[in-house]
Amino acid sequence: MNKDKKLKETLIGDIEGLLSLYEAAHIRMHGEDILEEAVAFTTHHLTRVLPQLESPIKDKVKRALEHPIHKAVLIIEARLYISIYEKEKSRDEVLLKMAKLNFNYLQNLYTRMSSPNSPVRIAISKSIQLVAVADDTYDNYATLEEAQLFSEVLERWNVDEIELLPDCMKTVYQFIMSIFEEYERDATKQEKSFAIPYFKESLRPNYVPSPIYSIIFMYVKQLAWAYIKELKWIAKQELPSFEEYYANSLITSTAYVIFIALVPGMKSVTKETIDWLLSEPKIVITTNKMSRYYDDLGSYELIGQDLNLKLKNTVRVSVLSEDVDHVIKACRIRESVGGTMLTAVDCYMKDLGVSKQEAFSKIVELIEEGWKILNTEWITNTYSIPEDMLVQLLNYVRVAAVAYNNGEDGYSNPRVLGPYIHALFVEPIFV
């Protein structure tokens, strides 16, 4: 630092040092002004010098600018780094060989249903299937009346009422019931039967928790009714306030359903851990918000000069960058209404009377603020819960950051995450 508390320009010539500082600065917390300056300084100079670099340092810098390690899925970064490190002239051949063997061993474990982490992976997959089917049903296939009926039947949780539903929704209801039955069997098998009522109630409507779970106020609300609220906004062509939109979208993000689904496969998790999750600690709320922010930004679409162009004319663009000028004309389209918009950007513009550029910049700012909160909660860790639960929360945001980065919706578009999946599960490293 110089006398003005600015980073010295002499650092620019040390690319490896600049890159290390860049990575370290992303673990900053609120009030760490030096690290704040370091992020801006290193990002600017690494971006500027990137075209002049040669491989392998160029590959390292390019990857870091796209996915800082702290905000990335670590096993993906490890796999990619092995290929980069292999090009290093100063590489340690023994270390490189051990890294390759270790990765191939892990890859073999990943493809086995009986690996130690299989119960967690299977539970997450089932819960994502459940919410994906429910979300698409409300968004794309059900009328408002049918969605209302489906929510009422789901609320009563009585399989005999399935006959009240249209034929197409009977299949959906049966699917949801089957997921619960599988979850109960898995929870019992893993001696975590205490988790069963929590998982059910996190999806049932009008659930009123007992006082023991009401530390501030209970998060658990009915997912289906949150979908109904969205449908009513669209049907009435009402634009909710930014806060109202996000309050509802934090429910439809379904993070709690997925978190609780982890329980049977995690040996360290107890009933107290679930009670802690439902008490809305800051790290859980921030994780939920972060996933929604990434989802919203990653799902935006550039639709040309006219914001009323039809959906078929849309193309994806990036919004997670320092410069958001090129996405001013972006907006998200709800598939179910053929062009009616329900976006956080529009809600923020309405509330604050700001431009689309300012709204985009604000949400990017909220993401960065969220990372500072997560870093603080993760580093200080005053919670009396298993550490691996905190790691799962951090990894949840990391997955969202990767899935919705570079202007692509990795949740909806398999081509985004496909190369990563292939590298992790299919393609071994030649030793």
UniProtKB/TrEMBL annotation:
This is Gamma-curcumene synthase. Residues 104-203, 220-301 form the Terpene synthase metal-binding domain. Pfam families: Terpene_syn_C_2 (PF19086), Terpene_synth (PF01397), Terpene_synth_C (PF03936). Its cofactor is Mg(2+). Residues 2-65 form the Terpene synthase N-terminal domain. Keywords: Lyase, Magnesium, Metal-binding. GO terms for molecular function: gamma-curcumene synthase activity; magnesium ion binding; terpene synthase activity. Its EC number is 4.2.3.94. It is an enzyme of class 4 (lyase).
